[in-house]
Amino acid sequence: MAAPTSGPIRSDPLDLAFAAARRAAEAGEVPVGAVVVRDGTVLAVAHNRPRALRDPTAHAEILAIRAACRAIGDERLVGCDLYVTLEPCPMCAGAISFARIRRLYFGAPDPKGGGVEHGPRVFDQPTCHHAPEVYGGFREREAARLLRAFFSARRT
């Protein structure tokens, strides 16, 4: 859910993203959290909600981008950074490009479903209009542990 969080950053944006991911897990959603920040101000915090919203596009990144766009009154997030706990999928990578996100920071890589460093590598395609700076592997172990615990609990 996109939180009405706005204002100066009081903690590391990745802390906020991981807290959102934990809320997703508690709600039975895949634990992914995302935060959009511009000029030291948090514009949006969101977590995965496809099941709750019955919407396959309700990924944390998409929800955070939508909320941030509403917060600034623009469809472009020029000068904004996105922090997410998992490598974005191709759909989310496309949205990141269209929103003109400046920098993307993510936690765990996603060899099966990722679209940035894996799979179609959306930002490397000639049809990609905008490629953010990408920094992966932040708190990778923590993100991977959270995902493993979530899926392990569902397989037993």
Could you list some keywords that capture this structure?
globular, single chain, alpha/beta, 37% helix, 156 residues
Strand order of the largest sheet: 1-3-2-4-5-6
Low-confidence stretches: 1-5
Share of helix, binned: 25-40%
Largest sheet: 6 strands, mixed
The outline comes out as globular
The tally of helices reads 5
- Tally of strands: 6
Order of helices and strands: EHEEHHEHEEH
Please indicate the percent range of residues in DSSP E strands (runs of 2 or more): 15-25%
Q: For the CA atoms, what is the radius of gyration? A: 14 Å
Mind explaining what this structure looks like?
There is one protein chain. This protein has about 160 residues and is of the alpha/beta class. It has a 6-stranded mixed beta sheet with strand order 1-3-2-4-5-6. Strand 4, helix 4 and strand 5 form a beta-alpha-beta unit. Helix 3 packs parallel to helix 4. The radius of gyration is 14 Å and the shape is globular. The N terminus is likely disordered. It catalyses: adenosine(34) in tRNA + H2O + H(+) = inosine(34) in tRNA + NH4(+). Catalyzes the deamination of adenosine to inosine at the wobble position 34 of tRNA(Arg2). Keywords: Hydrolase, Metal-binding, tRNA processing, Zinc. Homodimer. Belongs to the cytidine and deoxycytidylate deaminase family. ADAT2 subfamily.
